[in-house]
Predict the 3D structure of the following.
Amino acid sequence: MKNKGFTLIEVLLVIGIIVLLAGAIIVAINPGRQLARTRDTQRINDIAQYISAIRQNETENGRFTCNTTNPANTLPSTIATISTNTATGGYTNLSCLIGNYFAGSLPEDPLDNDASGTGYTIQYDPITRRITVCAPLMEVNTNQCRTQ
């Protein structure tokens, strides 16, 4: 009677081929890059939310009104990190936008570990009235700022 099973060599060969194919698929998918792209998309959406909230505040009040420290009720004319507290030196507090324009809290960068800020920066040009919000921690996308 003849044995109708697979030999050890045949089983090992099939396992080896499966491992090679799985490795090629993982390299092609590149999950690290996909996660970085997802975080960049979140950053782009957060930037749009900041600009929209500031413009809504201006529309409702006739000008930007928020008890900021640079001086009060103005946006910074130099690059400042957006914050929810009264940290000084390169930070601007936009916590007044929480509630009316942001539900819960200000958007924060997915990888930012700085407790003082959100990971986003803002700059206002009083001459052109243009707001620039940037996400300095962008990973894949090279366009880290949006001006409006």
Notes: The CA atoms of residues 22 and 28 lie 10 Å apart.
